[in-house]
Amino acid sequence: MQPQPSQMGYDRAITVFSPDGRLYQVEYAREAVKRGTTAVGIKCKEGVVLIVDKRVSSRLLEPSSIEKIFRIDAHIGVASSGLVGDARALVDRARIEAQINRVSYDESIDIETLSKRLCDHMQTYTQFGGARPYGTALLIAGISDGKPHLFETDPSGTLLEYKATGIGVGRPAVMKVFEEEYNPENSCKDAILLGLKALHAATEGKFDVNTVEIGIVSIQSGTFRKMTPEEVAVCVETFEQ
Fold first, then answer.
1. Which of 55, 68, 133, 201 has a CA between 20 and 30 Å from the CA of residue 87?
2. CA gap 181, 174 in Å, rounded
3. Tens digit of pLDDT for each residue in 208-228?
4. pTM for this predicted structure
5. Which residues of the chain are modeled with pLDDT < 50?
6. pLDDT tens-place string over residues 140-157
7. How far out from the chain centre does Cα 167 lie?
8. CA-CA distances (angstroms) from residue 182 to 81, 155, 195, 240?
């Protein structure tokens, strides 16, 4: 996305609006997210499922070293797309916010509260010079008051709650599948299969057990966990049958 010649110069600083009211640096950060690997989140009656494509670009890479799903607190998990280093910095901040809340109030942090605090932090980097916006988007999944929640952030600090959504390069294909087939009454197993179908469409079938990572937040246990490679392999094999 290149500005018109008459608008050149307005993308040099984050604090300068273009004549038509745009912040080009924020839009460029969104482009960084759109070029990232695909991540999907799906709410179901049993909790929330996060699935990511790790895009193993070389057979020499150790797939386990590519981390796209993070545990924030016992009841919260995050999937990222975009610049991994930026995502890691936000994950560290989210973990600190969660622990501050636990120490201050002796209770786990509310999902929406944590999401808003992260987005407030991201938004400040669109207001001041000398720093760039975060080039990452997050899917924040968790359980609050016995209910599942799925939030999506973007580099501008915008926060939206979804029933099912995707971020990254495959978002259009993912959203097309979800718009047509999402069912809020799905079980966790069905949600995983739907997520794999969406990821399959987004990657044009180029994924296997080594390139997929799955995390689940369960209402029953109230906790978040990442599935083991063996469990992921069973899910991928079930999908491919």
1. 201
2. 11
3. 888 899 999 999 999 999 999
4. 0.93
5. none
6. 999 998 999 999 999 999
7. 6
8. 22, 27, 10, 19
Pick left, alpha or beta for residue 21 (phi over 0 → left; psi -120 to 50 → alpha; otherwise beta).
left
| Residue position matching structure tokens 């930026």 | 86
Residues 6+ apart with CB under 8 A from 227: 213, 214, 215, 216, 235
Tokens of 38: 């695909």
What are the distances in angstroms from CA 232 to CA 16, 93, 157, 215, 228?
46, 28, 32, 10, 6
Q: Given this model, what pLDDT does residue 7 score?
A: 55
For residues 144 and 114, the answer to whether their CB atoms sit within 8 Å is no
State whether the Cα torsion 204-205-211-215 is positive or negative: positive
What distance in Å separates the CA atoms of residue 78 and residue 135, rounded to the nearest whole number? 16
Give the residue ranges of DSSP H helices in 150-187. 171-181
- Tell me, letter by letter, the H, E, C secondary structure of 4-56: CHHHCCCCCCCCCCCCCCCCHHHHHHHHHHHCCCCEEEEEECCEEEEEEECCC
Report the sign of the C-alpha dihedral through residues 208, 209, 210, 216, in that order. positive
Neighbour-count burial for 9-46, b at 16+ CB within 10 Å, e otherwise: ebbeebeeebeeeebbbbbbbbebbbebbbbbbbbbeb
